[in-house]
Design goal:
The chain has 275 residues and is of the alpha+beta class. The chain has 5 helices and 13 strands. It has helices at 36-47, 86-100, 158-163, 224-230, 250-258; strands at 9-16, 20-27, 52-66, 71-81, 108-117, 123-136, 141-145, 148-154, 168-182, 190-201, 206-210, 214-219, 234-246. Strands 1, 2, 3, 4, 5, 6, 7, 8, 9, 10, 11, 12 and 13 form a 13-stranded antiparallel sheet that branches. Strand 1 and strand 2 (20-27) form a beta hairpin. It is globular. The protein starts with 8 loop residues before the first strand and ends in a 17-residue tail after the last helix.
Length: 275
């Protein structure tokens, strides 16, 4: 029997394959606190448009692989399996953990029932693969259908490793559904479709790319003098045919978090006198 939701919960996004269903749930309001200080913080959080979210996976004789520690509870005939795979598998997974910042042992839950992952204020994106392969930024893998393979993608040239932020990223391959934990919501992501084209980005805010898209880091112009006069340094360069997901607002949030946008440290906003 499926878990009953009340009016306070909204399904933001979902994909249903019959034997595997992924849903992104949103708690529209949090009003359960009896502490005025916590209630005040929750009020400002909601005024800012932040909502608690949770990933729910419904299994029908199928399986899901999740990040360790992400499980909140499960209901039904669900079993947890180890996916170490012997000594060789252990070594491979430890290497994968070291290189990509993803956890070494990812629990696999199989059977028939419902799996709820830990709620939080993160943003979650559902990605569907059909015999495809994508490379994602490290640390954003959250869970996936166990028909998918999660592995390591190494940068193919020295410039990408030295100036691109990471030598290794996470590759997700096969056919199935994957959920990523994103720094920004889906409505702030630009999906750039490349058709034997080039995309150059001044910053490290590319979240995902097709495995068929080559990645390198280049100077913003052919000469050092040109780079100096243009005010730009090195550009992340994506070439080929496929898709690239960009999060152009991510650097803005990073700047706000670091306190580098001083105007935001002004007095609290007054609705009646915003000036």
């Amino acid at each position: 029997m499926e878990t009953k939701f009340y009016n306070n919960i909204t399904v933001l996004d979902s994909v249903d394959k019959g034997d595997f269903k992924a849903e992104i749930l949103q708690y529209n309001s949090l009003t359960g606190s009896k502490d005025p200080a916590i209630a005040r913080n929750l009020h400002y959080t909601q005024m800012a448009g932040m909502h608690l979210k949770q990933v729910k996976v419904t299994l029908n004789d199928s399986g899901v692989i999740v990040e360790p520690g992400a499980l909140y509870f499960h209901k039904g005939n669900i079993a947890c399996e180890s996916n170490i795979g012997g000594v060789g598998g252990l070594a491979k997974k430890m290497l994968h953990n070291k290189l990509t910042n993803e956890s070494t042992f990812k629990p696999r839950y199989t059977g028939t029932g419902e799996v709820f992952l830990e709620p939080g204020f993160s943003h979650f994106l559902i990605v569907k693969l059909d015999n495809g392969s994508v490379i994602v930024d490290k640390g954003i893998f959250y869970c996936c259908e166990d028909t998918l393979e999660v592995g390591v993608a190494s940068q193919k040239n020295i410039s990408a490793g030295l100036f691109g932020g990471d030598w290794f990223q996470t590759r997700i391959s096969g056919t199935g559904i994957c959920v990523l934990e994103s720094p920004v919501p889906m409505n702030e992501i630009l999906k750039c479709n490349l058709n034997n084209e080039r995309l150059q980005v001044d910053g490290n805010f590319a979240l995902l790319r097709s495995d068929s898209v080559n990645f390198s880091v280049e100077r913003s112009s052919k000469g050092i003098a040109g780079s100096m006069t243009s005010g730009e340094g090195r550009l992340q360069t994506f070439e080929g045919t496929g898709i690239v997901w960009l999060a152009p607002t991510q650097p803005v949030y990073n700047s706000i978090s670091a306190g580098s946008i001083s105007s935001l440290a002004a007095a609290p906003y007054n609705r009646n006198n915003p000036a």
